[in-house]
Amino acid sequence: MKFAVIIALAFAAQSAVASEKCRSQATFDERMCNSHMCTDCVLDWCMSQCQKLQEEHPGCRCQSWAEGRDSYSGGEYQGKGKYGDVGDYSEGMSETV
Asked: What would the pLDDT profile of 20-61 be if each residue is shown by its tens digit?
């Protein structure tokens, strides 16, 4: 019985977050949807900053995102699935003799 109550509360919390209205869409559009940092940047720093930005603007989403994508981390974005920066420094240390 307790398990069923916990599951019900979890679903209620999810639906409450998903239905939350965006109160700062114009700011979110500029900082997330129209920025290099959250659209083209492949650095780990950019990815983490965009995730923080999404937390600061709950309920906001970019108009260009695919249907059903409710957050920055919920879809495909530059750098997803990569660890750290991309480029020479992502290849590891080279051996020096």
From this structure: 789 999 999 999 999 999 998 888 899 899 999 999 999 999
CA dist 4 → 1, 14, 17, 85 (Å) = 5, 15, 20, 43
Candidates 69, 32, 36, 33; CA nearest to 52 is: 32
Q: Tokens 């780990």 map to which residue?
A: 44
Alpha-carbon distance of 41 to 37, in angstroms, equals 5
Query: Which residues, 6 or more positions from 17, have their beta carbon under 8 angstroms from its beta carbon?
Result: 58, 59
pLDDT at 83 over 60: no
Give the residue with greater pLDDT, 16 vs 31. Answer: 31
User: Going by C-beta distance under 8 Å and a sequence separation of 6 or more, which residues neighbour residue 63?
Assistant: 29, 33
- What pTM does this model have? 0.57
